[in-house]
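Hi all, long-time lurker, first post. I run a small reading group and we've been trying to get comfortable going from sequence to structure in the token notation. Rather than ask abstract questions, I figured I'd post a concrete chain and ask someone more experienced to write out its structure so we can walk through it together at our next meeting. Sequence below, copied exactly:
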Amino acid sequence: MGDRDNPVTSLVDAAASGDEPAWRELVDRHTPLLASVLRRFGLGGVETQGVAQAVWLRVVEHLGSLREPQALPSWLISIARREALRCVSDRQRSVPYDPLDPSWLPSAAEGAEPDAELLRAERHEALLAGLAELPTRQRELLILLAADPPLSHAQISERAGIPPGSIGPTRARALDRLRGTFAVRAYLAGREVAGDETACRNRAAVGDADGSQKGYLG
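-- Answer (accepted) --
Happy to help. Here is the structure in token form:
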């Protein structure tokens, strides 16, 4: 999918030029992604609203200087994480530390498979960022198909304005386009790099073990 075929690219260009409807469309497309990122930091309702406002303010201030408009979702994630961490840091500085207060102790959720939870969150954010890059029709269809509880084909057809017989082919095209989005490709490339690094470490560990065994056997 080329840059000009990416709806986010044209929306960023228009919004940077002062197009209010384009800006509202950008916010609507990326609000689920922003909410997903902020949810991981355990912010309260007021804190979440304040951080979200700060994030959108940063985006609108620097939107015109974004050299790769299709990278907006990744940029938004970085800004959201930075603003959320600042909020958490400010909160911790303002509350006296009490080692006997149970609220300062790590919860079971925090200690349960953090790596797996992080990987799930990263995958979820990549999918939300990819969805934001899709044309409206395809994005809305995939969201409807992922609804919980599941919707019937008749309900999806009515809400999406797509004939029931066209849902399958439209879904296939949408998934193909989702795989080709900037966000999903970047995520998959990152996983490949991480996999290569893990494989290298494993090979090194095996080599060290072999060397140790040879030393004992030699």
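A couple of things your group might point at:
The chain has a mean pLDDT of 81.
The radius of gyration is 22 Å.
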